[in-house]
Design goal:
globular; binds geranylgeranyl diphosphate
């Protein structure tokens, strides 16, 4: 299969929803403008695609759940806006463009992030936006996404990441950060697709294991790109982890071992799919595609 065109199709459908959802005039105009600025700044849309690919693997048509998949990108975008703030990573560049607080000021950037997080759950609790999905399945998926985003998931990882700056890396803390800051939302994105379709426990568990391993691989690769990547390609300043003495895989294990670890996580992700009798080709291809990514 051609994973690039698979990704492009689904990316376009998700991006079209952003305009549809936030397109109407609203007051204050700058809030909507700031939300759309960050949503439309680019991005791979991996979390929505994971959700769509899992739903499709279960036999659904991805078109039925575009709003719910897009809501994952609202959450991801909020996390990027907040992560870039002066109180956190203090970055001027994201996805190759000036960060939200550079364009709109800190107050509007914080509030645009807050609004994106809330709007995600406005979408995820509206059964009318995806009538093919049973409301109890929607409820379970929304719960999974909320847990992955909050104080047992992404936010916990972010706090630990900040607390660990300038400390010597240790394996337990490093794994905690990666599992929560990055893998939690990627895992929940994949799992949500299966939950939206009402997948069996066996299927949901296998896709959950796939998402977790893929999420861990994703962050190891992100750490490697921060060392080896080019600012113009990765869209954010290269070398910033080293500057902030972040706890990363290359700092703990070196680049070669980190690459090996990323390959092992991808192999684990793909192996999890072998446990289920579904058409998992896009999920499998996506895992290999992410291993080779340059941004
Ligand atoms: C909860 C305030 C708060 C922050 C959340 C997730 C997070 C913490 C911050 C984002 C910073 C970061 C580098 C997280 C690691 C996850 C990651 C690799 C993000 C980049 O995701 P991609 O590569 O980005 O999917 P694009 O631009 O393609 O969407």
């Amino acid at each position: 299969m051609d994973i690039k065109s698979y990704l492009a199709d689904r990316k376009n459908a998700v991006e079209a929803f952003f305009g549809e959802y936030f397109g109407k005039a609203g007051r204050p105009a700058v809030l909507r403008e700031a939300m759309l600025y960050s949503l439309n700044a680019g991005g791979k849309r991996i979390r929505p695609v994971l959700c769509l690919a899992s739903y499709e693997a279960c036999g659904g048509n991805g078109k039925e759940i575009i709003p719910y998949a897009a809501a994952l990108e609202f959450i991801h975008t909020y996390s990027l806006i907040h992560d870039d703030l002066p109180a956190m990573d203090d970055d001027d560049l994201r996805r190759g463009k000036p960060t939200s607080h550079k364009v709109y000021g800190e107050a509007v950037a914080i509030l645009a992030g807050d609004a994106l997080l809330s709007e995600a759950f406005v979408v995820l609790t509206n059964p009318l936006l995806g009538p093919a999905v049973r409301p109890d399945n929607l409820f379970r998926a929304a719960g999974e996404i909320a847990r992955a985003s909050g104080c047992s998931g992404m936010v916990a990882g972010q706090v630990q990441d900040i607390l660990s700056e300038n400390s010597e890396p240790d394996e337990d803390t490093l794994q905690f950060i990666h599992r929560h800051k990055t893998a939690a939302l990627l895992r929940a994105s994949a799992t949500a697709g299966a939950l939206l379709h009402g997948g069996s426990t066996e299927i949901v568990d296998a896709i959950d294991r796939y998402g977790q391993s893929l999420g861990l691989a994703f962050q190891v690769i992100d750490d490697i790109l921060d060392v080896e990547g080019d600012t113009a390609v990765i869209g954010k300043p290269a070398g910033s982890d080293e500057k902030k003495k972040k706890m990363t895989y290359p700092r703990m294990y070196g680049l070669d071992r980190s690459r090996e670890i990323a390959r092992t996580f991808v192999a684990d992700a793909v192996a999890a799919l072998d446990a289920i009798p579904l058409s998992v080709e896009p999920l499998r291809e996506l895992a290999f595609h992410l291993l080779g990514r340059s941004h």
